[in-house]
Amino acid sequence: MRPENTLAAFQYAIAIGADAIEMDVAVTRDNVPVIAHDPHLEHLESRPALRELTLADLRRIAPSIPTLDEVLELSASAAAFLFNIELKSFPGRPELTPLPEPFAQLVLERIRRHGVDRRALVQSFDFRVLHALAKLAPEIPRAALFDHTAEDFPSIARRAQAGTVAPEFHLATPANVAAAHQAGMDVFVWTANSPQDWRPLIDARVDAIVTDHPAALLDYLARST
User: Fold this and answer.
1) Which of 80, 151, 154, 182 stands 20 to 30 A from 2 (CA)?
2) Which residues pair with 123 in a beta bridge?
C-alpha cells in the first residue's frame, strides 16, 4: 500500500486501471493548493497547520506532499481517469482554510490550467465551497460529501447545488440510491475496503466506490461480473 495523497499512490492507482483518483486539498499560507488529508502536520511534535506554512516551508519539512498542480499533471497519462478533488474546508475553524470563494477560485484556476474541466469532480463537506464553485463555473461537476444524516439524498444534493451525492458507504441503502438515481443524481460512496462492504454497494447499484484498496476492488469486480 502506498502512502495516501502522494504522487506514488496516485501513479499506482492509475497504473492498475482505477477509474478515478481521490485527493484532499488544503491551501498553504501563500495560497498554493496542496494535497493533504489533515489540516495539520501530525508527524511533527508542533503540529503546524498547513495554512500557517508557505510552500517553501512545506517542501523543507514534508517533501512528500505534492501540490494540486503536480497531481493534475498526471492528466498527461494515456489513461482516462477522473480527478475526484475534495476541498478540505472547516467552517468552524476559518484559520485553517481560505474563505469559500477564494478557495473555489484557486482550485478552478488549476483545473483550467491543466485542461481537466471534463475530468474533474469537486466535492466537499462544506457546501459553501460548492455554492461558490457553482457560481464561478457551473459546468464543473460537484459532489456533496456527508455522513450520519437522516435527510434524503436528493434533498442533500439540492442543498449543496451538486449533481452527485457522496455519502459514507453505510448510508447507501438500495432505497437511498434508487431515490438519487430517480432524481438524476449519481452516488459515489466512501470509504469501503472489504468484499463484505462492496457486495451490498454493488447490489444497491452505486455509481462509484472510493476505497483504500483499489487493486483488490478491481479484482473483486472482475470476478463478480
Assistant:
1) 80
2) 86, 143
